[in-house]
């Protein structure tokens, strides 16, 4: 569940969100978007959790693959519905991962 | 709860973790670390959520402020206890935020 990303550099899209009360179709769409994203060229992994806020970080090879995913037709429809129904607020940050470190218990 | 960060560029520390069963003192320490981090020079904000995994992203002015926080004595003790007791695995990624976008419902 911790994404198995390659050696840096690569890119992270940090998506932080506050949901509305409207749950109509949200879970299905969220699941579908992870499935669809993972099929895109340049996708490296995703990590996600939600309590009061949701924090989802997806990892990508480069800015070009992020741009293509943003413009993907099915994703564009989901993004529009997100603004119209599911999210009270969200912030997207595009960041270049420069270094990383993994700890695993023996 | 979405961090009010300044105009990019700035840095993100993406901390993704899987917990052990051992909850001894964990919540108090996690809370204390957020409090302590927010007092450090260069700290810009933090966003955090946990279900199966925990995803915590803290934001910093520059690499120097991240380095100083890593070496903070009380944080160092907490980090050691994290490895010894609280975490099954974790990954830390240091990333430079190049752009961001905020959506807020009217």
Question: What report would you give on this structure?
Answer:
2 copies of one chain form a homodimer. The first copy, chain A, has 106 residues and is of the alpha+beta class. Chain A has helices at 26-37, 63-71, 73-86; strands at 10-19, 43-50, 54-60, 87-104. Chain A has a 4-stranded antiparallel β-sheet with strand order 2-3-1-4. In chain A, α1 (26-37) packs antiparallel against α3 (73-86). The mean pLDDT of chain A is 96. The interface between A and B is large, with 42 and 42 residues.
| Oligomeric organization of the protein chains | homodimer
Number of DSSP helical runs of chain A: 3
**Intertermini distance of chain A:** 17 Å
Q: Kindly state the mean pLDDT of chain A as a whole number?
A: 96
Structural class of chain A: alpha+beta
Chain pair sharing the greatest interface: A-B, 42 and 42 residues
What is the number of beta strands of chain A? 4
Strand content of chain A: 35-45%
Radius of gyration computed on alpha carbons of chain A: 14 Å
Write down the secondary-structure element order of chain A.
EHEEHHE
Low-confidence stretches of chain A: none
Choose one word for the global shape of chain A: globular
Major sheet characteristics of chain A:
4 strands, antiparallel
* Side-by-side strand order of the widest sheet of chain A: 2-3-1-4
Which percent range fits the helix content of chain A? 25-40%
């Amino acid at each position: 569940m911790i994404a198995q990303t390659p050696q840096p550099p690569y890119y992270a899209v940090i998506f932080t969100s506050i949901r509305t009360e409207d749950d109509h179709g949200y879970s299905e769409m969220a699941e579908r978007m992870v499935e669809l994203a993972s099929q895109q060229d340049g996708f490296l992994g995703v990590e996600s959790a939600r309590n009061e806020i949701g924090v989802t970080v997806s990892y990508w090879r480069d800015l070009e693959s992020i741009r293509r995913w943003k413009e993907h037709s099915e994703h564009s429809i989901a993004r529009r519905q997100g603004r119209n129904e599911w999210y009270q607020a969200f912030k997207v940050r595009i960041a270049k991962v420069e270094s990383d470190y993994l700890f695993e218990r023996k």
